[in-house]
Amino acid sequence: MSFQLVIAEKPSVARSIAAVIGATEKQNGYWQGGGYLVSWCIGHLVSFAEAGQYDEKYCKWKYEDLPILPQPWQFIVPDEKKQQFEIVRSLLNRPDVDSVTAATDAGREGELIFRFVYQMAGCTKPVKRLWISSMEDAAIREGFANLRPDSDYDALYQSALCRAKADWLVGINATRLFSVLYHKTLTVGRVQTPTLKMLVDRDAKILRFQKERYYTVGIQSGSLKAGGGRIASMDEADTLRQACAGASAICSSVKREKKTEQPPKLYDLTTLQREANRLFSFTAKQTLDYAQQLYEKKLLTYPRTDSQYLTEDMGQTAQHLVSDLLGPLPFAQGLDLTPEVGRVLNSKKVSDHHAIIPTAEFAKQGFTGLAESECKLMNLVCSKLLCAIAAPHEYETVTAVFSCAGNEFTAKGKTVLVPGWKEIDQRFRSTLKADGEEEAESLNTLPELAEGQSFRVTSTVSEHFTSPPKAYTEDTLLSAMERAGAEDMPEDKVNCSAGAREGGLGHAERKGLGTPATRAAILEKLVQMGFVQRKGKQLVPTKDGINLAVVLPESLTSPALTAEWENRLTEIAKGNADPDEFMAEIETQVRQLVRTYSCISADKQNLFQSERVIIGKCPRCGENVYEGKKNFYCGNRGCQFVMWKNDRFFEQRKKAFTPKIAAALLKNGKAKVKGLYSEKTGKTYDATVLLADTGGKYVNYRVERKE
Predict the structure, then answer these.
(1) C-alpha dihedral over 271, 274, 275, 280, to 10 degrees?
(2) Active-site position among 302, 309, 472, 701
(3) How far apart are CA 385 and CA 321, in angstroms?
(4) Which tens digit of pLDDT belongs to each residue from 491-528?
(5) What structural domains and CATH numbers belong to the chain?
(6) Which of these, 11, 74, 156, 387, has the minimum number of CB atoms within 10 Å of its CB?
(7) pTM of the predicted model, to two decimals?
C-alpha cells in the first residue's frame, strides 16, 4: 500500500486536516489512515545558518570580516526542532510514500517553510499544493479535490527566498557594522529600520511644533449657531464681537447638497488590525494571534490576506452566510436588511486569499466557548460583513452663510435621508464598552432657512490653539506602513483605471513596508529591542531609537526605498521580475554600506552608551563607583574593586543588594539593613552590615550588630 504524505505548518492544522481526510490513527509525530500520512512543521523547522557556521571567525564581530555574503547558503535545524524534523524527513523518504502534499499556510512564508524542509530532507518525490482560505471541513475537502502542482508556486517561493536572504544579508551585516562602530548592539532590519525612521520623523515634528493662539467669533439666534474664520488678535476678535452683539445677521446663501456614502470594504489583515487597535486597544500582534486562533477553530477565514473582496463564485455562499448571521449577533436583531452581495465580489482583486469573513461554522456555533477577546474580534468581522453588503448611507448637507457687521459667518447642518449601512455600524458600536475612543457622529439640524432672512443675534469669542501632529498609534502606523512609497508613484499610476491597475500597471497599494503578515512582528521587535516604547495607544521612539535612525544612511532608513523592494518582491512572486537581479542589488548595497562606514568620529562613539549612575567613591582608589547590570564597579579600569549584586552574603539572607545599600556602604563603610533572613531561626531581623574590603579580588561583608 502506498501513502500520500501531507505536511502542515502546525500540529493543530495537521489535526484538522487529518480528521477530514480520514487519517485518524495517532502515531509518533504524525496521523495515519485512509491512504494518508499527515505530519507537521513547528513553524520554521529549517532556517538559514548563523554566520559562525560559515567560518568560526564570524563568531566574533569585527569590521574586517564584513561583508558576510554566504556562497552557497547553508541551513540548520534548531536543536529544539530536530526531533520533529527527523520524523518529517523519515516520512518524506519512506518507500511507501509516493507523493507529497504541501499543506503549510497558503502564502509566501508557508511556501518557504515547506520548501526548506523538503530540500533539507533530500526529497525528490512529486509535490502537490493545498491552497485553502478556510479550515472548515468543506473547504479542506474542496482543496484536496483541487490540488495543484507545487511548481505553480515556484515564483512565490522565489519571492519568499529573496525576502529571507535580503533580510539575512542586511540584518547580519548592518547590525554587525553599526554595533562595532558604536560599541553597542544595534539591531538593524530591512523593514524594521524604515518603520523606526517613520516614528522618529513624526516625533521630531511633534517636538518642533510651536502652538499658535487664534480666536473665532460666533453668532447665535435661538438654536441657530454660525461661526467665523480665524482671527490672530484678541483685540480684533473682541471688536468684531461687539459689532455683532445685538446686530442683525442676514442669510446671504443657502446651499443644499444630497450625498451618498458607500458601504465600507471587507477586512484585510491590516484594516482589521487597525480597527481592533482603535476600538479595543489590541496590538497588531494580538489581533493576528486572535484571528489565527479563530481560523484554526474554523470560525474565521484565513487572516493573512491583503484583499478586501471575495471571489465571484462566492456570491451564494456570502448570501447564505449573511442570512445565517442575523441570529447569533445581538446587534443585528430585528434588522431589516436586503443584502447586496455583488458589491463585495471581485475576483480580479483577490490574489492569494479573499477578505476575512466569518465561516458557516461560526454561523452555526456562534460565540459558544470563545474568550472575550475572540468574541470582540468575531463581532467586528461580522459587523463589517453586514455593513459591506448593506445599502449606501444617504444624507443631505446644508451650508448657510450669514452676513453680520461686514463679516461672513457659516452654519452647517446634516440630515440623514437613508441610514443604510451606518445603522448597522451604529448598532454594533453601541454594544461596545468604553474600550475605544470612538465618538458617535453628531448631527446638527438647521431650521428652515431662506436667502434674505434676518436674525437678531448674540455674539461670543472663543480662544483656540493649533494642534501638533499626533503621535503614531498602531492603527495610524500600520496605515502609514501600508501606504509607504505610494506618494513617490507617478500620478497616472496611482489614479489609473481599475482595468489598468489589475493589469499590473500600478496601484498605490502595491507598495508598502512589510506585508500584512509581517507588520505585527516588526512592531513587536522594535519594542522588544528598546527602540520604541508604548505609551497607552501611542508608539514613541526611545533615545536609542532616535539616535539609531539619525546615524543610519538613507538606504537603510528610507520607507520609500524599502517599499520599492517590497514591490519588487511582489513582482517576483508574479513572475514579472528576476530574483537573481534583485539579490545582486542587495549584495551591492551591502558591500557599499561596509565600504562607506569604515569609521566614525570620536564624539559619536559614545552616542549609545547609557548614562552611568554614580553610586559613590571607591574605597581603594577614590574614583567613582557605578552601577552595572550585575554589579557596582569602580570606573578606574586598573582598580579591581567590584561589589556583586548576587553576593552570597546577601543571597543567603534573602536580601536584594540594592543601590541604596551599596551607596551607604561606600559612604560610611556600613549600612543599616532591614529584613535579613536567619537560616538558624527561620525569622528576619534588622542589622548593621559592615563593608570588609581586604583589597583582594572579592569584597566581604559581615553583620556588625543586630538592631
Answers:
(1) 150
(2) 302
(3) 10
(4) 333 333 333 333 332 333 446 888 888 899 999 999 99
(5) 3-146 (3.40.50.140), 163-205+471-603 (1.10.460.10), 213-262+394-465 (2.70.20.10), 269-391 (1.10.290.10), 614-706 (no CATH)
(6) 74
(7) 0.79
